[in-house]
Design brief:
The chain is built from 4 helices and 17 strands. A hairpin with a 2-residue loop joins strand 7 (152-163) and strand 8. The chain is mainly β. The termini are far apart. The longest helix is centred in the first third of the chain and has 17 residues, at 4-20.
Amino acid sequence: MKKILPALAVLGAFSAAAHAQTTVTMYGVIDTAIRYTNNQVTSNHTLGSQTAMMGGAFQGSRVGFKGSEDLGGGTYAVFLLENGFLSNNGGFDQQGQLFGRQAYVGLKDTSLGELYIGRQSGIAANILGSYDPLWSGNFTENSWSCALYGIRFDNTLKYTKSFGPFTAKLQYSVGEQAGDTSIGATTGGALSYTQGPLSIGGVYQQSKDAHSAQLKVAGLGGTYIAGPVTLYLQYFNAARDPGFAKAASNSGGALANTTMLSNAGNTLKRTDGVWTAGVLYQVAPAVGLTVGYMNDTIKNVSSAGDSGRMSTLYALADYNLSKRTDVYIEIDRTSLAGGEIQDRNGIMPFAGASLGAGMPNAASTRNGVGIGLRTRF
């Protein structure tokens, strides 16, 4: 009996140590707003104002699980499962996928870097999002630029490695289409530099649809922190081959489940040159003010070869009730010009917020205001 008790004690110690090396965390965000906008398309194809409850200005609501297991020698097995949901009605977001925001497993090594496998954000979203005043907001009008490069990709391998102040990222999203491994695939690379108050980065990303038409995205961005002020600036160019299109959501086709603007029906290459500038001013520990401006200069909106422009100016005041919960008010004004108003090919100017594009009485502006509450856990 005297020999058994020490043995049990040692076994219990090893069990506790093993348990301490594995962590699983549940987390989430709920961001909900009441929002008023004008010039929305009504059911009888006219324009009218709308008041709606919807996801908030900052972030899509989510609940997630992430874990890490220490394998020894500085290597960890990691995973992340993140569900996106609509906080106003409880429904699934992201095409109805259970873990539509992210779902991946990977290895993380202090010397060799990180390799993640599964559904995850693309590197254009990683880089350009980090140089956006709202980290690519959540109202359509303050986040439409994301649809020009795509946010999340199924079947993705992503590798990240840091070298001092430099961080490199590589992405390969498997197309999974029979007969041609390049169909539906997305590849890309990014490099960023962060030292003190300055951060800059660049990215190149390329996607191929079911008919080998391509989307090519190249972008640069940066931030600079000066006391309570953070400055943001970025530019990217997105070029879509004639007819470029993604497959329908949940179809299993090329680029399905990727939020990405198409160029279907256009016999010309469409190019979007987008620059974003903004500033965050932390007035006090609990109060932040953000102002941002996005502008897209477009060539070949349609097969007619017309040019167009789309821009949004927004401002947001945020008050922290605690470390986890804040309230805010956001206002914005979006403008369309040239071919973006007429939208002759039926290409929605920004992810469905069309201002009645293509209608005889199509509007050229939309104003919006939202009041929201966000909590994180």
